[in-house]
Amino acid sequence: MRCLGSLGRAVSDRALLLGPVLPRWPFLQVRRRARVRTAGRECGTVTSESTVAGNNSDVRERRIRRVRAAYVEQFGPADAIRYGAVPAPQPGPQEVLVTVEATTANHVDTFIRSGALGTRIGFPFIVGRDLVGTVASVGAAASGFAAGDRVWCNSLGYGGRQGAAAELAAVPADRLYHLPDRVPIEAVTVLHPTATAYLGLMVHGELRPGETVVVVGAAGNVGSAAITIASHAGARIVAIAHARDLAYCASLGADTVLDAASPSFADRLASATGDGVDVYLDTAGANDLPTAVSLLRMRGRIVVLAGLRTRANLALGDLYVKDGSIRGFAITNATVGELAEAADAVNQLLIAGHLRSRRIHTLPLADTAEAHRMLESGELHGARVLLQTP
Questions:
Q1: Could you give the C-alpha distances from 13 to 1, 195, 341, in angstroms and in order?
Q2: Beta-bridge mates of residue 133
Q3: What phi-psi label fits residue 49: left (phi over 0), alpha (psi between -120 and 50 degrees) or beta?
Q4: Which end of the chain is more exposed for a tag (fewer CB within 10 A), N or C?
Q5: CB-based contacts of 317: which residues, under 8 Å, 6+ apart?
């Protein structure tokens, strides 16, 4: 089966694993709309007009110079984030100018803002990687999009790209995806967790139907998305969470739910995974590798994707005699192709109505610093922040 998205590539076998349960990726039949070619490339406060020819008529494009955004002028704590006017994005020929409706804040955004996670950025630096918005204009060499399209992106704000926390954003066309019809802006809160879970499980974990996966931190944003994805992939799921969240994890599709604080936890985990574990995914960042290795069956895979500062002691013999592997994964390193594959899965789950944040805390874009502070202090307790533009 072939994907007709902007990359024009085949959908991988990993994505097809979801096929028996979900529709066969109908949204990938991208509508070929006429491209909008614009002459002016300045954006922000209105200063002038330019003329664009098309369909025997002239279209007046108002050019803007500055936009409001949440940004930092150097690495620092949450209160280093400022909100105010910055130079508007100047999209290149392979970029799409997007009017941002909503963005969010992720833990990885706090790592980049503080300098804890090295990536190429320039100051002043607009924070944030996720957005939902509407196409304002399309570069001359960008295809697959037209003015007015609802779209989303989850890979701004690193690798030399300015972030999403602004009124306008210039997005490379190969990092932009159509938002399915009738999906609200709240979808911005599930983009990063779901793409992270998909890549961790399906790409790095190589999860297959019938395999057993342990998800640690299963009630969190990435953990709950992992349960949803693993369930649709036909895996057997052992979810580890707090007692108050066990029913929630079961409702998402977990086959076995375990309270990590229970005195009988170790025995129950051993019983639930008696035949061994194929994939061990710790979204909480505890990274108890000795326990994880002890649970692996032959050629089992441990995926490490959280716990930036954790350390672990491990008897390597226990790992290699099982042909086991430990695989590090940071979504910041995902290729354009991997992100597009994850986007296929995200959109199909959105279409099916299987993705929604458990709780959403809505703030204006001007309060981006507060969103970062809440994340780092642990105040959100699994809730997601939605930051709305003015």
A1: 9, 17, 10
A2: 100, 151
A3: beta
A4: C
A5: none
Report domain extents, the chain.
1-30, 36-183+360-376, 192-323
Q: Phi then psi for 361, rounded to 5 degrees?
A: -110, 115
Which CATH number applies to 192-323? 3.40.50.720
Q: Which of 125, 128, 138 is nearest to 97 (CA)?
A: 138
The token pair that represents 260 in the structure block = 């990590």
* 303 to 12, 26, 201: CA distances (angstroms): 20, 30, 8
**What's the number of CA atoms in the CB half-sphere (13 Å) around residue 339?**
23
Please choose, from the candidates 341, 301, 291, the residue with its C-alpha nearest in 3D space to the C-alpha of residue 207. 301
Q: Render each residue's pLDDT in the chain as its tens digit; 390 residues.
A: 323 333 233 344 555 455 544 433 232 333 223 222 222 333 343 333 333 333 332 333 456 789 999 999 999 999 999 999 999 999 999 999 999 999 999 999 999 999 998 899 999 999 999 999 999 999 999 999 999 999 999 999 999 999 999 999 999 999 999 999 999 999 999 999 999 999 999 999 999 999 999 999 999 999 999 999 999 999 999 999 999 999 999 999 999 999 999 999 999 999 999 899 999 999 998 889 999 999 999 999 999 998 777 787 887 888 989 999 999 999 999 999 999 999 999 999 999 999 999 999 999 999 999 999 999 999 998 899 999 999
